[in-house]
Design a protein that fits this description.
The protein has 256 residues and is an alpha/beta fold. The chain has 2 domains: 3-173, 3-Layer(aba) Sandwich (Rossmann fold); 180-248, Winged helix-like DNA-binding domain superfamily/Winged helix DNA-binding domain (Arc Repressor Mutant, subunit A), CATH 1.10.10.10. It has 11 helices and 8 strands. α9 (209-216) packs across α10. The longest helix is centred in the C-terminal third of the chain and has 15 residues, at 220-234. The chain is globular and about 50 Å long.
Length: 256
């Protein structure tokens, strides 16, 4: 393994491991107090171009409360480092050498609690749907603005989903073009109340909580509660998986 695929050196004494980096930086650059105790988000950069890795590292580490704990240039390195460094978010290049990115996402998500943000070259990338199925919680086109990447990393670290509107519409369009069941067939739908099914259908159509609340004439908090309960009952990790489930189960009819 080359040096770029290993955990960075900590402090001034050459010790390995990412957590000490975050703590040392907090002590050196921030005053004592509540803010200084906030943990930094641990990020793994999985990108095969060294120059791109360097640029992303600088971008993230100039933002507050973000730290790069490791870099990987191949799929095998990314999987090993995700497990070993306890990274919270992995920035994954869709074209990382090694195994297919969809399979890599599945393996990372199966063996760690690390969220995965897949970086793709185009919104027409055919792997988007498979990536969401495999457990990706973020999708971003590589020509996005730097501030969008920082915002996405923070969102994923908090357990949210980060899929740009144009990519979500692309996912919905692909799902909507597929054959559908005449009636819902997934047994897990039986766990949902009629209202939760209705909310699920609206999520599948791409509506956010505010739009769902307006459509159903309820408060935004109520809409959010229905979505959260549906996710819990269906054991969905994120909202993107709810969209996939809504179509796969036949709950949403393509062309609606």
């Amino acid at each position: 393994m080359n040096r770029t695929a290993r955990e960075p050196l900590n402090g001034r004494h050459g010790e390995r491991g990412g957590s000490v980096v975050a703590l040392d930086r907090a002590r050196q650059t921030r005053p004592l107090g509540r803010v200084a105790t906030l943990p930094a988000v641990r990020v793994l950069i999985a990108e095969h171009h060294a120059l791109v890795r360097a640029g992303v590292r600088v971008l993230l580490e100039t933002a507050s409360h973000l730290t790069v704990v490791a870099e990987a240039a191949t799929s095998d390195e990314a999987l090993g480092l995700a497990r070993r460094t306890r990274a919270q978010v992995t920035l994954l290049d869709a074209d990382l050498p090694g195994s297919d990115c969809v399979e890599l996402i599945r393996r990372i998500r199966a063996g760690t609690d690390c969220a995965v943000l897949l970086l793709i070259g185009s919104e027409n990338d055919g792997r988007i749907f498979g990536a969401l199925r495999a457990g990706a919680t973020g999708l971003m086109v590589k020509d996005a603005e730097p501030v969008e990447l920082v915002r996405a990393v923070r969102a994923l670290a908090q357990g949210d989903v980060s899929v740009s509107p144009r990519l979500m519409q692309r996912v919905i369009a692909e799902l909507a073009s597929r054959p559908y069941a005449a009636s819902p067939t997934d047994e897990r739908l039986e766990e949902l109340t009629p209202r939760e099914r209705e909310v699920m259908a609206l999520v599948g159509l791409g509506l956010n909580n505010a739009e769902i609340a307006e459509r159903l004439v309820v408060t935004r908090a109520t809409a959010k509660t229905h979505v959260s309960r549906a996710m819990l009952k269906l054991r969905a990790r994120d909202r993107a998986q709810l969209v996939v489930f809504a179509y796969d189960s036949g709950l949403v009819i393509p062309g609606t």
